[in-house]
Amino acid sequence: MADTAPPPAVRQDLVPLLEAPSKIELTPPDISAYRRGNVGIDYVTRFEAARPGPTVVINGLTHGNEPCGAHAVDFLFRMGFQPTRGRLVLCLANVAAYHTFDPARPLASRFMDEDFNRLWTGEALDGAGDTVELRRARQLRPVFEDADIVLDLHSMQQAAPPLILCGRTDRGRGLAHLVGFPALVVADTGHLSGRRLIDFSPFSDPAGHRAAILVECGQHWRADAADVAIGVTLTLLTRLGMADPDLVAAHLPRPMATGQTFIEVTEAITAADDDFTFAADFIGQEVIPRAGTLIGRDGRREVRTPYDNCILIMPSRHPHRGQTAVRLGRIVADFSPGYLTA
After folding, report:
1. Looking at domain 266-331, does it have CATH number 3.40.1010.10?
2. Mind giving me the DSSP string for 176-197?
3. pLDDT value, residue 256
């Protein structure tokens, strides 16, 4: 019989953020001062140091209802941050959706016409489609194609511990290891419904050298999601040698965790029915000890865990047909990072 206790490395990360917020603590900051930017694209600003180094894009508002990334970008502007080497690009993506935010209907501002984070293929970007999100993605395409590193800041429906999604490349995993926070790193292939920004070919092609990670900073409207977004951003810039460590330490809103657990997603469960329901009130990062445990029903089809100690990653509260309902993962014991930042 399998050990019924969750693996210790994961159990340690299940302590914080278990309660859903009773109110919206994290309100959208005013970003109007950043509209003009300096590269000819609204809400994109580039800072360049005298010393050579990587081009790093900090991207917020991939989804309009996830304000933590806007808080991180706003924080860098307000502290007057300047990189000590390389180029830093601050980008706010789906601002059209962001400007529709209504605290009475906070989920409604996720996007205008379609999910901005499912458009990152040449077929979609070069195709005949014409939506608010596609037009914005086409504007921002050269920004991301010019980047060596992209940090895409997101938040989650559920009040689960923060995590990094690093894609499937070794350089994505290595970048996650370089940052070192959050403690959970998840390697996956994305969604059937479309490619995410971190899956865009410059970052996912096996022969490439550019890297992108997506950080889920916490629940959408909890104040500590902004703390995580700011902390991850400052830590990345420090690890890349683009920021003065003493200056960053003075501005870190919370201590950064040490040690990481790497989880490999073996299967993404895509809802085939609009009547997908979970067997329990999962929030994410739960460890299901036994293979064959019922975790949900997709219409008449039962969804069960395929192996012992299966970890549930980011279950969707109300998945619709064609959307990812939950990812199933297991701990990777032999992870060996190898990302070079020179």
Report:
1. no
2. HHHH--SSEEEE---BTTBB-G
3. 67
Integer Cα distance of 288 and 308 in angstroms = 7
- Which architecture, in CATH terms, is 18-262? 3-Layer(aba) Sandwich (3.40)
Tell me the pTM: 0.87
Q: Where are the domains of the chain?
A: 18-262, 266-331
DSSP alpha helix (H) spans, the chain = 8-11, 68-78, 95-98, 122-125, 132-145, 170-179, 201-204, 223-239, 245-251
Q: What are phi and psi of 9, to 5 degrees?
A: -60, -30
Please report which residue ranges of 254-309 form alpha helices under DSSP H. none
Sheet strand arrangement including 301-304:
276-278, 294-298, 301-304
> Is the separation of the CB atoms in 173 and 337 below 8 Å?
yes
The rounded average pLDDT for each run of 10 residues, N- to C-terminus, in the chain (342 residues) is 34 34 82 97 98 98 97 96 97 97 87 96 96 98 98 92 94 94 90 92 94 96 94 95 88 73 93 91 90 94 95 87 92 60 34
- Within its chain, how far is the Cα of 210 from the centroid? 17
